[in-house]
Amino acid sequence: MKIEAVSENTILLTFGDTISEAITPRIVAMEKLIEHHLAPYLVDLVPSYTTLLMIYDLDRADYRLMLSLLRKLADTLDDHVQEHDDGRTFDIPVWYDPSVGYDLENLAKEKNISVGEVIHIHSSKTYRVFAVGFNPGFAFLGKVDARIATPRHHSPRSSVAQGSVGIADAQTAIYPLTSPGGWQIIGRSPTQFFDPKGDPHTASLLQVGDEVRFKPIQKDEFLALGGQL
């Protein structure tokens, strides 16, 4: 692990240089250790694909102290990874259909497989949450099976509906809010992924380290669960 000061009150912990499902549990474990042991100094923690950014209170510590404390925690990390590798697992219902999955048929055609095969491949894997960002509650999940991995659109759509499930390269995600976006859309979920009125720490349904499985549903169930067309 590389630990370095990147500004007067931020330190970046780097766990590797390649996105890997094996790195995420280490990031989550280190995040929990910092929250538990260094709470008096902590302003914020931002976990991502291969890094963990710590923002600390300059009135309580300087970078020399924080580097020292973080290195001591890092020495104990291997003993804590397993206990924090049991994150939550969510079964997310998705209506895979061209009427809401704008790119579903084109993706199947480009990959020379059927729409049913695209759906089966996408819903047969458990995905890890690598990062949350872009929009509030937007969770980047990986990795997508190479058979359906596909690049983003060259020009993003001006509006992608809330709940839309998309693929971009080797990642998949669900749009928590209606917004512009360039991902290849293959379905839509009725699940609410961001609650702006909720607790700031739990407003996003999905957090780094969580796991997601997609469950194919039909239109009637999508509507019954509150899905919007």
UniProtKB/TrEMBL annotation:
Residues 1-206 form the Carboxyltransferase domain. Keywords: ATP-binding, Hydrolase, Nucleotide-binding. Coiled coil: none annotated. Its EC number is 3.5.2.9. It holds the Pfam family CT_C_D. SMART domains: AHS1. The keyword Lipid metabolism does not apply. This is 5-oxoprolinase subunit PxpB.
